[in-house]
Amino acid sequence: MTETIIVGIYGVPGSGKTFLTKELEKILGTDKYKSFDGSDMISQVVGGLERFKDLTEVQQAHVRAVAIKNIKQQCDEEKKIGIIAGHYMFWDEEYRDSQVIATEEDYKTYTHIIYLATSAEVVVQRREKDNQRTRPVVSLSHVKRWQDTEQEKLKDACLEHGILYTSIMESEVLEKALTLINDFSTHDKNRNLVQADKKLDDVMEAGNEKLEVVLAFDADNTLAPVDTGHMFWQGLLSDPESPTPLKKLFGSHLGYSYEAFRQATLYYESIGDEARFEALCNQVAVAKKITLHKEIGSFLQTMAKHTHIGCIVVTCGIKRVWEIVLQRAGLSDTVKVIGGGRIKDGFVMTPSVKTALVSRLQQFYKMTVWAFGDSPLDLGMLSKADRAIVVVGSKETRSKGMDAALNTLLENGILEAQQLVLPPIAPPRLDSIRLPIVSLDAEFLHPLTSSPLIPNNIATRIIIASGNTPLVLATKTRDAAISGVPLQEHHKKIGWYLATHFLLDLLGVEEQTINHVQGHQVPGYRLKNEEQTVIVPLMRGGEPLAFGVNAAFESAAFVHAKIPADLNSTLLQQMHTVILVDAVINSGNSMAEFVKHVRQLHATIRIVIVAIVVQFESIKQGALHDLLASDERLWLVALRVSENRYTGKGSTDTGHRLFSTTFLD
């Protein structure tokens, strides 16, 4: 810890500050800690408290500043943590207003303040029974007013000056103070990340050894259209319309920093013991009837059936609330929550920690990570993930600053994401071009649930058809009873399907003028740069499939090629796009040679490989994989991926089946 930690123990006279400080000294010792009584330190500066009382207010403020400076200097020199019993304000009952006595030096020196929220009844009794000091008689109502005012002012002052603040009730004073001071003395950003990593490790070690994919969800306004932190504090406020502590905190100069989330945890600590915290979390989760988005609940239930997929929630909100919500949804065994809320959790979840956990999943555990989030706090995690889904709620619940933050990252190429609009009738963010809309349907699930999984580093370069349509289309290609012209016609249908369903979205469209059937001209659309596109079937096996692509893009050129040298510079220099077509890609070596040749002749041309089936090993490793990983203007579109390793021969060779020449092999 580089900063000297100075902890103030505050409270009204009679709350037990001096007693607590002495008890802490007995238990903690003096090797690492140094205790002070603020009044004693003031007395040392001026030679007695009576002399201090005779000074003017300005002089007294100066003495207090000198006293706190002396404390700080001693702690710095001895490299010890300071614990000071002090006063924030005084308030004689006969006066209407209180007197804040804290100085600017106090605000500069204290790193933490613990307020003893001892009940007013106990304070009055202690003052009456105090035989060592003469204390003026105060009424119960005045003590309550003093405490309420002091806590409100002190909390605001701490927030303004970056001092971490919490309070303790008398039933748990010593034990709670020890827990807090131990936490104050050991916690920093580095320890925070270490503890967060440990929580993730615990979840991963308890998970399935077959995991390949982890889905990481934010909680508030992602899993459900609620802000549980707001609900938690709103239930404790006498005026539901007044701002919650979290609203004031995150709207302050601390923003959503590590320090802000540490302060949020200390606010939660101040509400009482674990039993009360648990009761309040249940009140939020159960009494408020929080339920997951119907679509997300069903999605998580479906994911639980797949042993290679794991689901975690990484929340900056209250971990315990979301554990209860997931338990009520029957998902607590399969969806684990990583987050904080209390000191015992060991860390606070911040935006940077979310990002770091996604990175750890990818780099240490070699996981493919899909991330789901709704606010600017999730953008680091979304940008880091292999696939990012922005959950968009109704206009009333969605984050107001998300559009601008999203737009900046998208424009700068830092983020590539899709949006999931819940409920589906809500207006989308930005537009469906910059942020395509997805649904949790079969097409969305296919890349997750299909096996094998495409390697992370080329996942964005490969498009594999999903849903029921490719299942039906693939059936006839594998049917031994179909060959010759019927199989050629079927390959053409597949070419048309891949072109119209995937290539148009990948390459874009452009407007063209057409003559309407009613005799006037209207705008129509076609493939972008269609007249500068060349379709190249590789040998005869790719020809019927290529004819199907050509049927969709009628203005494109069509050139046969048996070897790469069949494609010359004169042809390619006129083109924006080349579509290399083959029915089956086995090792990928032949296709890789074509790609290398095209790229040598034209450095920026868009290259799209189209196939019916791709053997998994060819995109897992080897020449084709390496090209897809390194060339940002190369894509592969296929009907399906197969793990079946074979080389066609005779009746199993695609070219022979297409042209009824199986007898030749």
TrEMBL record:
InterPro entries: HAD-like_SerB, HAD-like_sf, HAD_sf, P-loop_NTPase, PRTase-like, PRTase_dom. One of its GO terms (biological process) is L-serine biosynthetic process. Residues 473-661 form the Phosphoribosyltransferase domain. Pfam families: AAA_17, HAD, UPRTase. One of its GO terms (cellular component) is cytoplasm. The keyword Glycosyltransferase applies. CDD domains: PRTases_typeI. Coiled coil: none annotated. Transmembrane segments: none annotated. Keywords: Glycosyltransferase, Transferase. GO terms for molecular function: glycosyltransferase activity; L-phosphoserine phosphatase activity; magnesium ion binding. PANTHER family: PHOSPHOSERINE PHOSPHATASE, URACIL PHOSPHORIBOSYLTRANSFERASE. This is Uracil phosphoribosyltransferase.
